[in-house]
Amino acid sequence: METVVVATIPIDQFVLEEAIERVPDVEFEFLQSAIHSSKSTIPFLWTSTSQPDELDAALQRDPSIDRVRRLSMDDDRGLYEVDWTASAARLIDEFAETGSVLDVRGTPDHWEFQILFPDRATASETFQAWRDDGIDPSLSRIGNFSCPEDKKGGLSATQHSTITQAFEADYYKVPRGTTLEELSSGFDVSHQAVSERLRRGHSHLVEQLLSESTTGAETRL
Hints:
By secondary structure, the protein is α+β, with helices and mostly antiparallel strands. It contains eight helices and eight strands; from the N terminus they run βαβαβαββαββαβααα. Strands 4-5-3-2-6-7-1-8 form an eight-stranded antiparallel beta sheet, with helices on both faces.
């Protein structure tokens, strides 16, 4: 049965370590559509900080970034377009290819990943491979993924339809069988709109799953 895992890793084992150290209150969030492949899709980052100017300077100097451009800033929340260095891109791809990455968030303490695996055995193999590579994940939540047809998992009709079509088109496989652009053509909306539908639907399903899980923070695969 499909398994959702919430795992954390230290900030020095992923990207943006120096930016986080220079701006201690910053929080990062990868856009879901940007996570799958840093080679074919330019990643975008949401940021939250009380020091936006300091964050601009920190991102410019961070060794995991080749080029960065701020696209918007509203109060303390900003959107950045990032070109990663080759080594950072390889690292992002390593994490992205472990399963269907639903969410990635960075805080001053750690990076948190929400990943959907086809089963617990695959999740266990993946995290053992991480450990073999010197990455030290801590698993905070593990749960089974389910979405009863009669209740649609609490999703809106639009979210349910979008996730269903994405699944049927092998969007969640590695490598993916379709792109956001191809999915959006079937809905006659922009690929950004499809990305947002998927992201909100994933967030709701993960929240629902984790609220029902009785697995504690001490759980280990």
